[in-house]
Design brief:
2 copies of one chain form a homodimer. Chain A is α/β, with parallel strands linked by helices and about 325 residues long. Chain A is built from 10 helices and 11 strands. In chain A, strands 3, 4, 5, 6, 7, 8, 9, 10 and 11 form a 9-stranded mixed beta sheet that branches. The longest helix of chain A has 29 residues.
Chain lengths: ~325, ~325
DNA sequence: GATTTTTAATAGGGTAAAGCTATTAATACG
DNA sequence: CGTATTAATAGCTTTACCCTATTAAAAATC
């Protein structure tokens, strides 16, 4: 069976056209080299080199084989460096899911940090809602998710955002004069909401809040993403509850007012399929030797950690 | 040092995800396979497979390495078949030189035969005159030449054409009435000739013939190739001596007449750098083990041989 | 929950082959 | 004709590849 050794030896001889010097280059002795080349020729059934006691020349088939052999060798080299870089996590792919709000808060900063540090990790981004992300993560369709807890799937998570919702309303709205608002004041307003499926949890929190204030909200429109909601607010269609960080996207004709009540909180967590033994229920104490998680995922999580540190300072 | 064996073994395990079955496929025993995979991982410094006593899974770097390893293996396969086909002469390159007359006589038929039989041998054709071909052949710039003997370079040759020259003259020419012509009748004609450099030997033969007839020809024009010469004959510029096979390219307004004298003969020989030991003067008796000539060249010469047989029958 | 089955890892040993040194044979060069 | 160069040959050592037998651990089954 032909081995890379044969190719390495042949390439050395074919390039130097000298068994002695080639052997020296290879760190072996000349008789060994002669023997191995002969073996290679026997294995192939082809004379690659013409040699007298004095001269070594490539035959025509030998010339062709040299080209191919060198390609195989160089591709082997790249395969080695590739797998090593992949093990470091500096090369690879990472598929990331995110919900709309992530795109307007934590995602850009984190991605920026990661891309700068690991430019050769190919990121494939996919916007999808929390439940979809859960199942995609479990099915190994996604490696990281930016989604809204709580979730019940057995996944690791790390909270990266928790901010209150604020009321967005037209600046000519009667309530715009007040610095804070109570839910009861909103009882007769038209609401612009995101579709329930997009964030079932937050949706029901909002509904509960309304119920506590004694009303069931009149829903003018269900849209997504949040900037569109604010656009509709500016258009006077209704008022909206949006996450606090949307205030940074200032838009003429729209003002934001905090709620007096303890508001629902928009939470974002980075989520991934933890290092489980292999799908079996992970008992906290006995973690056994685990499937090593993808190095690029590991690096991504480290970047997220660092980003959290950075933000706190 | 990583060997193809490692890649073969790894690919088998990575595809079956089962050491036992993979070992069976490979025709080795399972402990050996386990050992070799571990060796590979140590050599790379990368864990390629996650394995428990029960489950085998590819790690992320392992997945990438599998792709590369399979590519290396398949390229090795093609390298082997390529070199074997090259040794048979069914794959390769062949650079062929030819003179103008070859193109209108033997070359098309021979090339056709060869192409049909060896479609994967890439032919590169180059028109150049006899002396140029000689030096190109010696410099290994050409592998085969279709040229006009005699030559003095130490090259092998095989005559493939020997035909008389005939006189081409306008059909309204006074001499066109005669069925054969003598040189003396041409003494006062304007001659259309090929440039001396294109075929120095034939050129001087023609000159000698004129001298024997007691005149030095008046040269109206020196052009090449032969169809152009005949075109000029049709235009009434003069008469020309062309090889007999040009008669098959009939052209209105031109007639061909044989010469009474022993005409100069247009000879074409297939020429190649013979199997010399390596450039040293080849003593006929003691040929020693020779550099094997390019397989595609060998095949080409065989086709030429067959073509000669074919033509004789 | 004990037992059987499955499957990768470990242990120990034999052998093919990859490697070494020393020498030979053939060629080129002075 | 002698000397230098260089690939091939001969004989030997050692590496490592592969084998069989066994173990250990996890899953499946009764």
């Amino acid at each position: 069976m032909i081995e890379l050794r044969h190719l390495r030896y042949f390439a050395a001889v074919a390039q130097t056209l000298h068994f002695g010097r080639a052997a020296e280059q290879l760190g072996i002795t000349q008789p060994v080299l002669s023997d191995q080349i002969r073996r290679l020729e026997t294995l192939l059934g082809v004379q690659l080199l013409y040699r007298t006691k004095r001269v070594v020349l490539l035959t025509e088939p030998g010339r062709m084989f040299l080209t191919d052999a060198m390609r195989v060798l160089s591709q082997t080299e790249t395969a080695i460096t590739t797998v090593q870089r992949a093990a470091q996590g500096t090369l690879g792919q990472l598929s990331i899911g995110y919900t709309g709000p992530a795109l307007y808060t934590v995602l850009p900063e984190i991605l920026r940090l990661f891309r700068d540090r690991y430019p050769d990790v190919e990121l494939s981004l996919r916007e999808c809602c929390t439940p979809e992300q859960e199942s995609a993560l479990l099915a190994d369709d996604l490696q990281v998710g930016f989604l809204h807890p709580p979730i019940d799937a057995p996944l690791q998570q790390l909270e990266v955002l928790c901010e209150p919702m604020v009321v967005a309303l037209p600046d000519d709205h009667p309530l715009a004069n007040q610095s804070t608002l109570s839910m009861q004041q909103l009882a007769n307003e038209s609401f612009i909401l995101f579709p329930q499926a997009v964030g079932p949890n937050l949706y029901s929190q909002i509904m509960m809040l309304c119920a506590q204030a004694g009303f069931s909200p009149h829903i003018a429109q269900e849209v997504t993403p949040q900037p569109t909601m604010i656009g509709l607010v500016a258009a006077g269609i209704g008022i909206a509850l949006v996450s606090a960080s949307m205030q940074s996207i200032s838009r003429p004709g729209v003002v934001y007012r905090p709620l007096q009540e303890e508001t629902p909180l928009l939470k974002l967590a980075v989520t991934w399929k933890g290092a489980s033994s292999h799908g079996s229920s992970t008992k906290p104490g006995q973690q056994s030797k685990a499937m090593p998680e993808s190095p690029s995922l590991r690096n991504f999580l480290q970047v997220v950690d660092e980003w959290i540190q950075l933000r706190c300072s």
